[in-house]
Design a protein that fits this description.
Rossmann fold; 10 helices; alpha/beta; single chain; binds S-adenosylmethionine; 7-stranded mixed beta sheet; 362 residues
Length: 362
């Protein structure tokens, strides 16, 4: 029994490190797919919208790029290289001497991220100076007006914390016997949505100070169509069912399951657009639902890869709350349940891939 453990409300549990079987590096094809299909549109938008007048034009200047929530790679390296190639093309198109411009890339994630693996696997032929920046992107990370392009892919659905009402027994939003929510749990959903709103606001307010005027921010945000949960959220609810069953069997404490909640919120595209507009600091230059960019999809999903993908993302968080044996058991049971739900895996190219937003500082 794990009754001695109490679920924590503040979360900073990075993806599985290293490059082993259960690492994020080996189980992030889903996110890689998003990076691949947005490559061209990001390039076109940089070519069209980047203001070279406000950017470095001689050798004493440096072009600075930051990837926020970079994890351990390799996705971050593809993202960064695409941005550098696009900026190079932009310089060429304006007949600037691009050789005089140097690139510096900041890789940011929580301090507990496996930066060692990330830095050891930097591409040997990289044409930039690399630095790791630990810390939460919900606050300030860089000096004022210092970054020319920000990128953040598949990160903003991670909340800075579980909304406090969810774990308050006296609140209408108390989330007993669940680790997430469904569309019927209105109060819980509202508490999650309000936390997302606060987090996105602090993210945007920090970035607007750090971005140079005319600078660009590229976000890939996991989004859902209105009034629906996506497969990712449905998966989390299946993991919740597994935990509840384990509690019923007395393998883990019911109290712990009641206090354990996943600090993730997947917004709708409309919610994101509304919040960016209300924040007022950025102009959306391009937004595109990713599933619209897919023409020839070879992505395959099965119960095992789906379970490995979620495990790579959640294991650190689960381990803060449950013993390793329990965590192993949860993911074994989860995979079994997924395998028995064939409809669940039948449509790999559904609308769940999220949305790309490319914005400029006003
Ligand atoms: C699903 S991974 C995405 C990694 C990478 N961007 C990609 O596309 O493959 C989400 C990453 O965001 C990081 N993250 C979540 N919240 C964060 C925060 N507040 N500050 C910095 N990093 C954060 C996590 O630690 C994790 O490494």
């Amino acid at each position: 029994m794990e009754s001695q453990k109490v679920s924590k409300s503040y979360q900073a549990f990075p993806m599985n490190g290293g490059d082993g079987q259960q690492s994020y590096a080996r189980n992030s094809m889903y996110q890689r797919r998003g990076t691949d299909i947005t490559k061209n549109i990001i390039r076109e938008t940089i070519l069209e919208k980047l203001d070279l007048e406000t950017l470095p034009q001689n050798s004493s200047d440096t072009f600075r790029i930051a990837d926020l929530g970079c994890s351990v790679g390799p996705n971050t390296f593809f993202t960064v290289q695409n941005i550098i190639d696009s900026v190079d093309l932009k310089y060429q198109s304006q007949e600037y001497n691009k050789d005089s411009v140097e690139f510096q890339v900041f890789f940011n994630d929580h301090a507990g991220n496996d930066f060692n693996t990330l830095l050891k696997s930097l591409p040997e032929d990289k044409q930039y100076f690399a630095a790791a920046v630990p810390g939460s992107f919900h606050g300030r990370l860089f000096p004022e007006s210092s970054i020319h392009v920000f990128n953040s892919s598949y990160t903003l659905h991670w909340l800075s914390k579980v909304p406090k009402e969810i774990v308050d027994k006296n609140s209408r939003a108390y989330n007993k016997g669940k680790i997430y929510f469904t569309s019927e749990d209105e109060e819980v959903a509202e508490a999650y949505s309000a936390q997302f709103e606060r987090d996105l606001e602090s993210f945007l307010n920090s970035r607007v100070l750090e971005l140079v005027p005319g600078g660009i921010m590229i976000l890939i945000i996991l989004c859902v169509p209105p009034n629906s949960l996506n497969r990712f959220e449905a998966s989390v609810n299946i993991i919740g069912d597994v935990l509840v069953e384990m509690a019923k069997k007395g393998l883990i404490s019911e109290e712990l399951v009641d206090s354990f909640n996943i600090p993730i919120y997947v917004p709708t595209s409309e919610e994101v657009k509304k919040l960016i507009k209300e924040n007022g600091n950025f102009k959306i230059e391009k937004s595109e639902l990713l599933f619209r960019l897919i023409d020839n999809d070879t992505y395959q999903i099965d119960a095992h890869s789906s379970s490995m993908h979620l495990r790579a993302a959640f294991e650190g968080f689960f381990k803060e709350n449950f013993e390793q044996d329990t965590v192993d058991n949860v993911f074994v049971q989860f995979e079994k349940k997924l395998a028995s739900e064939s409809n669940f895996l039948a449509d790999p190219s559904s609308k769940e891939l999220g949305e790309l937003f490319i914005m400029k500082r006003k």
